[in-house]
Amino acid sequence: MQTITGKPEAVAIPISSVSKGTRLPAALWALTIAAFGIGTTEFVIVGLLPTVAEDLAITIPSAGLLVSLYAMGVAVGAPILTALTSRIPRKTLLISLMALFILGNGLASIAPGFYTLVLARIVTGFAHGVFFAVGATIAAAMVAPEKRATAIAIMFAGLTLAIVTGVPLGTFIGQHFGWRATFIGVALLGVVGLIASAALVPNNLKNNESATLTDQLKVLANKRLLLAFLMTALGYGGTFVAFTYLSPILQEVTGLGESAVSLILLLYGIAIAIGNLAGGKAANKNPLKALLWMFVLQAVVLLIFTFTAHDKVWSIVTLFALGGLSFANVPGLQLYVVQVAEKYLPGTEDVASAFNIAAFNIGIAIGAYVGGLVVVSPLGLEATPWVGALFVLLAVLVTLYSARISRR
After folding, report:
1. Which residues contact residue 111 at a Cβ distance below 8 angstroms, ignoring those fewer than 6 apart?
2. Cα–Cα distance measured from residue 367 to residue 240, given in angstroms and rounded to the nearest whole number
3. Which residues, in sequence order, are bridge partners of residue 19?
4. If DSSP states are collapsed to H, E and C, what string results for 166-196?
5. Can you tell me the distance from the alpha carbon of 151 to that of 30, in angstroms, rounded to the nearest whole number?
6. pLDDT tens, position by position, 314-358
7. Are 288 and 294 in contact (CB under 8 A)?
8. pLDDT band at 9 (very low <50, low <70, confident <90, very high)
9. Can you say whether the dihedral through the CA atoms of 239, 243, 244, 248 is positive or negative?
10. Model pLDDT for residues 179-195, shown as the tens digit of each residue
11. pLDDT tens digits, residue range 282-321?
12. How far apart, in whole angstroms, are the C-alpha atoms of residue 49 and residue 268?
């Protein structure tokens, strides 16, 4: 499975810590549990926006900031905090991140008001950004070289599982027992992940050399990479113009009840899992070409959803297609960034990957924010899908331009 965090860094470790047998180390499951909890806390708020807004007496667009500001926390955490924590032993860092994750969700569960909840989300976003930046490294370090891809896939299966099951289950819990109960449950998942990590992750994982400021500036100064980051922000962010407000769309525009929203989020998550795998296979040979067609289809389906959102049957059909396309571009985007870095700035692949994680989350933040502006405008909820389609259309244009300069 391809993920948004890119390829792992090379890790110098004693041979004794590598699993030589046919079994993969149990520590991988600790990472998977942690990834499941972190993925759940990122996306579950989408299903809980109406519940949170009503309880805290705020507007739906204001509640949408809980998505935007979380994403900004991840965007900062990925490249900046990963560099600042590069000298901390990997196991110590992992346990500290899970403690921060538990703290953030615990604070969210007792937040007396909106601003405290925003702060809790930002804190949790910091933990998210660093965790996924170093998680692949830790997973790869615990197995033999020929098993590293499998180890990383197992770890990030937790993220996919979160979208498929964690988000609809968390939404169901929040709707029936209050949104605070959802954050308590996610915090408890963090406790399990912390205990498992402390008990199972090896102590002798060695740190990588930290990226220099020069490396980071090289990446930010490269035109081709900047275009790739722009593709990521626009293509991925376009989804979140509508996805952030999917629950109120389904309730207020489509006319479905709260219980139906949880089921639809489950179907959406299944579509995401299928699309992620299919998108990875499609992008293997020529990611830029595959991305172009994915963006075109994504824009078309978003536009179609503008009209089908009023029908209970066709809205579900459209959302399943949209779920498959919305995350199908993730593997291709990350692969393309790595390929560009390998070709034009060898040795900066990991730095470029970290910045692309930031680009994904900047896209989420901007998409969710713009969606909120659309909701409070005269256009209303119904316009969020076609506005998202405009974002993706811009990604199509950037992709075409990138393809043009890559042929030179």
Report:
1. 117, 120
2. 5
3. 143
4. HHHHHHHHHHHHCHHHHHHHHHHHHHHHHHH
5. 12
6. 999 999 999 999 888 888 887 888 888 888 988 777 778 778 888
7. no
8. very low
9. positive
10. 999 999 999 999 998 99
11. 888 888 999 999 999 999 999 999 999 999 999 999 999 9
12. 17
**330 neighbors 2 (Cβ within 8 angstroms):** yes
How far is 46 from 249, CA to CA, in rounded Å?
11
Supply φ then ψ for residue 175, to 5 degrees: -75, -30
The answer to whether the CB of 365 falls within 8 A of the CB of 245 is no
Q: At 328, is the secondary structure helix, strand, or coil?
A: coil
Its pTM surpasses 0.85: no
What are the E-state strand segments in 250-386?
none
Tell me which residue of 204, 146, 158 sits closest to 35, measured CA to CA.
Answer: 158
What is the full DSSP assignment across 78-98? IIIIHHHTTTS-HHHHHHHHH
What is the per-residue pLDDT across 155-183, written as a single tens digit (0 to 9) for each?
777 887 888 888 899 999 998 999 999 99
Place of tokens 């579509």: 271
Question: What crossing angle do the helices spanning 287-308 and 312-326 adopt, rounded to 10°?
Answer: 160
368-402 residue pLDDT tens? 999 999 999 999 999 999 999 999 999 999 999 99
Q: Say if CB 398 and CB 291 are below 8 A apart.
A: no
